[in-house]
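Hi there,

I know you've been waiting on this one. I reran it after we fixed the sequence typo, so this is the corrected version. Both the input and the resulting structure follow.
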Amino acid sequence: MVDLVVGDLTPFDIGMAIATGIIASVVLTTAYYMSGSGMPKWKPRKLVHIVIGTVVGLTLVGYSNLSGPLLAAGIFLFILFYTWAHKSELIVDLLVAGSREGESGANTFLSGFMAMISFSTVFLLFYSRPEIFVAAILAVAWGDAAGEAIGRPLGGKLVKRKYRDKSFEGSIGVLIFTTLAIVTSLIVFSPNTCILCFIPQIFIIAFCVTLAEFLSIGWTDNFFIPMVTAIAMWLFIFPGIPLFLV
């Protein structure tokens, strides 16, 4: 787990930070042009959702200390503001491109801000178990994204009735990909955990996350999904571990 200090950077930290900053910049640029081409807004939004969420989730806890994430953020911001200096409306355009239909750029900013609060809380509370933090991020990046990526084209095929524009098919997508997110986090960051021994618990956790996504309104899923994922994993897979801030 990344140490909560600002220290020396290892060559691995530097390489991972450069790769992260470049990938994030390329993905945002791609999403920007996808949106400008007239493509439905949810597609570029979910591209950013999936790729950046995956990169952050799988790399953040792998740095030796906080200098690595700070360097990655610095590289990304340097590229962003360098581009903004040559195109003054860039940031506003990116917020609009990442907004849901009928929502403003302010809603998009609030969605990202509340997600950061949720992720930060999970990170600090469950610092001793990086797999919980990683699963919380991947549940949003994969599970939540699958709800829209599957629900948009396939929603209403099996069950016609929708609830707040949420479909049965989309919820099944959330359930499946949240399960994959939890399993992936355990395989990569908790190799000593017997995954087969916890299959029932993993499905219960995924169901809780699916229910949270189903009941969420607008941007609130970005706040509730990481929290529900982390708390459910704590209760069903790692009961009794001490909370870092308590």
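Quick highlight: The CA atoms of residues 34 and 55 lie 20 Å apart.

Best,
R. S.
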